[in-house]
């Protein structure tokens, strides 16, 4: 009996043996070795592309909530936590608070982030196994690890975030539930969806919608269940039962205007590049439907596309146009995260299918790669994505028109484009590595290299296509060990200051400079987390405090009032209200501006000004200087494209009582 090639990476045509019964099986030890190499290297690469940066971004809300629960008379009086309507919808804060109290905020946050990522990756493996096997499976995992992961607008959200929040855990539950659904285990799938719902309802809702869509596709009687559920929801809303009562409640104009600061909530405010990226991911998933496995996997992808489209339409019509409170809070557009996961995960499946379909398919693959590389050029990205879908759909008609010479030219053009795109980023990364100051994470510079994901994914696709070639097992093991070591050494990407901030232990050098009076401090330039961690005080106003104001009308009103005062006093700019849209500008407030912000009821007791953030303090304003307790070197790319390190440590501490009463105005 001839010996055939196995499906394992590293198993060439002769790597097999005859079993006692006449069948062909791979050597068990070799199979286990390749399994360990593939799993460890894929997980390590996944972690390397998601370095841990500590309690930042939305993690401030989750970890800050736990710290506030332990300090109700201090940080607990912050306007974000006093008006918190978001935490009660998730089970995670109830688990996070005792963990923070038991082991401290820094270990609890890192543990939550790591558990979230590892759980997410395990769920992804289960789902990927339903679409591919052998070496294609590993290339799918690599693609999901390295390809762009953002969804929605402004780059605010991405799947599998490395932050200690509820989103990665809920996403993991959804992915595991979808894997069980494709495997025909509907009850297990439903249970996993419920668990994800308890962790983060907004992220789990798209998964539940996909689950229902697949069930309807299998059995139309589920439409009756869906109709009864809709009637029950309307009935609960009519009788005022929460949270369904918000379904018939409309946002007032003031609330709606305040929410414009979180423009990612409303698709009508999204920039063109967000829609271009949506077109690229949708085109990729559509090609996966055409060239991927049939049966349940294809039904799942169709359901994901349908739910994403309906979610966008519902957000625009019900939340943005009509202004229904529940529609804005549920954020149906978040279904796009599943579309982005499917696009990244199935890139190798699409690549293999298009390459095998002849020259037209290979041309379509080159066009799709160009679309993924062109997020900064929306028109080019959309044109290339539509071109890929069109050429792939008409492949049988183009067999005599598209030659291998055309394909080689297209591939060469894409390769040249990659080189031109990647070269400046690589140069900046090299400059950062050579000039790395003490305290800077060793691998920080690598995260500045844009456009690296697609070449890595393309190399993985080439590896999947060359089934008759595999690297020697020792070489593969050495490469895997190197990637694992890099992940162990480089996953914690925090600076010394970020590690210090994560402890939420006030700095005595700062607290001695602050007045003894109780009350919030105003830490300018997005300093909410630093006010909580270093001053042990609530912050007067910051963007992060308005991140969840869609869930609380009272929070939105208070946030808008204080933000207006900040901007009127010329102590803030557009970056304080909409940092994902506006950049920082230089500020030159007068002494009277500081007096104005400190006057009146509910004013801060002190103002902390980061002097190296382009804010000038007038000479007549009394102040004391404060330096951060640890280094905080941050990589930046200058206007000339060269990499450099920025260290912003010096701050001015201004006691509001020392400013005196405001002068009478005209």
Question: Brief overview, please?
Answer:
With 666 residues, the protein is mostly helical. Helices cover 55% and strands 5% of the residues.
Notable characteristics:
mainly alpha; four-stranded mixed β-sheet; 27 helices; 55% helix; globular
What would you note in describing this structure?
With 666 residues, the protein is mainly α. Among the domains are: 104-350, no CATH class; 498-659, no CATH class. 55% of the residues lie in helices and 5% in strands. The chain has 27 helices and ten strands. It has helices at residues 28-48, 59-70, 79-82, 92-103, 105-128, 134-146, 167-182, 186-199, 201-218, 222-238, 253-258, 272-291, 296-321, 325-330, 336-345, 347-356, 359-372, 378-393, 404-434, 453-465, 473-490, 496-502, 508-511, 528-535, 553-568, 574-577, 591-598, and strands at residues 17-18, 24-25, 150-151, 157-158, 521-523, 606-610, 624-627, 634-637, 643-646, 650-655. Strands 5-6-10-7 form a four-stranded mixed beta sheet, covered by helices on one side. The chain has a two-stranded antiparallel sheet with strand order 1-2. The chain has a two-stranded antiparallel ribbon with strand order 3-4. A hairpin with a 5-residue loop joins β1 and β2 (24-25). α2 crosses α4 (92-103), α12 packs parallel to α18 and α16 crosses α20. The longest helix is centred in the middle third of the chain and has 31 residues, at 404-434. Residues 1-24 have low confidence and may be disordered.
């Amino acid at each position: 009996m001839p010996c055939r090639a196995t499906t394992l990476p590293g198993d060439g045509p002769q790597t097999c043996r005859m079993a006692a019964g006449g069948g062909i099986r791979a050597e068990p030890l070799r199979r286990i070795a390749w399994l360990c190499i593939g799993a460890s290297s894929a997980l390590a690469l996944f972690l390397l592309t998601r370095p841990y940066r500590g309690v930042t971004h939305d993690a401030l809300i989750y970890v800050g909530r736990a710290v506030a629960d332990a300090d109700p008379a201090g940080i607990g009086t912050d306007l974000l936590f006093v008006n918190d309507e978001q935490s009660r919808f998730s089970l995670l804060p109830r688990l996070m608070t005792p963990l923070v109290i038991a082991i401290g905020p820094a270990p609890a946050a890192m543990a939550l982030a790591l558990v979230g990522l590892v759980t997410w990756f395990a769920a992804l493996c289960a789902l990927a196994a339903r679409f591919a096997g052998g070496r294609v499976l590993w290339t799918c995992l690599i693609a999901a690890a390295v390809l762009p992961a953002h969804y929605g607008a402004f780059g605010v959200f991405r799947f599998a975030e490395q932050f200690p929040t509820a989103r990665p855990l809920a996403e993991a539950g959804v992915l595991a539930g979808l894997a069980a659904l494709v495997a025909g285990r509907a009850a297990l799938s439903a249970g996993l969806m419920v668990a994800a719902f308890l962790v983060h309802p907004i992220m789990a809702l798209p998964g539940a919608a996909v689950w229902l869509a697949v069930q309807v596709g299998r059995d139309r009687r589920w439409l009756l269940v869906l109709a009864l559920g809709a009637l029950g929801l309307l009935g609960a809303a009519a009788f005022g039962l929460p949270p369904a009562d918000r379904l018939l409640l409309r946002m007032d104009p003031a609330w709606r205007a305040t929410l414009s600061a979180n423009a990612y909530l409303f698709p009508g405010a999204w920039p063109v590049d967000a829609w271009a990226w949506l077109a690229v991911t949708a085109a990729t998933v559509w090609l996966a439907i055409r060239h991927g496995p049939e049966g349940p996997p294809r039904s799942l992808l169709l359901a994901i596309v349908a739910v994403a489209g309906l979610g966008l339409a519902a957000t625009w019509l019900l939340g943005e146009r009509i202004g229904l409170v529940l529609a804005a809070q549920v954020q149906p557009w978040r279904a796009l995260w599943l579309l982005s996961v499917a696009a990244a995960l199935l890139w190798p499946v699409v690549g293999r299918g298009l390459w095998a379909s002849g020259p037209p398919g290979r041309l379509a693959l080159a066009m799709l790669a160009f679309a993924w590389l062109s997020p900064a050029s929306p028109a080019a990205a959309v044109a290339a994505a539509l071109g890929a879908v069109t050429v792939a759909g008409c492949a049988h008609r183009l067999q005599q028109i598209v030659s291998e010479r055309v394909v080689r030219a297209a591939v060469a053009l894409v390769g040249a484009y990659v080189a031109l795109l990647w070269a400046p980023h690589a140069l900046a990364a090299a400059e950062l590595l050579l000039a790395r100051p003490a305290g800077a994470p060793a691998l920080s510079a690598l995260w500045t290299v844009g456009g690296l994901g697609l070449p890595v994914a393309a190399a993985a696709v080439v590896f999947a296509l060359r089934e008759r070639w595999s690297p020697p097992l020792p070489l593969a093991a050495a490469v895997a060990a190197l990637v694992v070591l890099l992940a162990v050494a480089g996953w914690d990407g925090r600076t010394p200051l970020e590690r210090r901030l994560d402890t939420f232990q006030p700095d005595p050098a700062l607290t001695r400079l602050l007045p003894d009076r109780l009350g919030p401090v105003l830490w300018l330039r997005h300093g909410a987390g630093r006010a909580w961690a270093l001053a042990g005080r609530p912050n007067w106003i910051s963007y992060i405090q308005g991140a969840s104001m869609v869930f609380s009308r009272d929070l939105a009103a208070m946030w808008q009032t204080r933000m207006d005062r900040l901007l009127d006093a010329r102590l803030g700019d557009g970056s304080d209200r909409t940092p994902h849209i506006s950049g920082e500008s230089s500020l030159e407030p007068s002494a009277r501006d500081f007096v104005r912000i400190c006057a009146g009821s509910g004013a801060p007791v002190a103002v902390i000004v980061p002097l190296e953030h382009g804010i000038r303090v007038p000479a007549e304003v009394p102040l004391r200087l404060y330096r951060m307790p640890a280094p905080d070197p941050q990589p930046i790319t200058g206007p000339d494209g060269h990499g450099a390190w920025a260290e912003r440590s010096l701050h001015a501490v201004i006691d509001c009582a020392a400013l005196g009463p405001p002068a009478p105005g005209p």
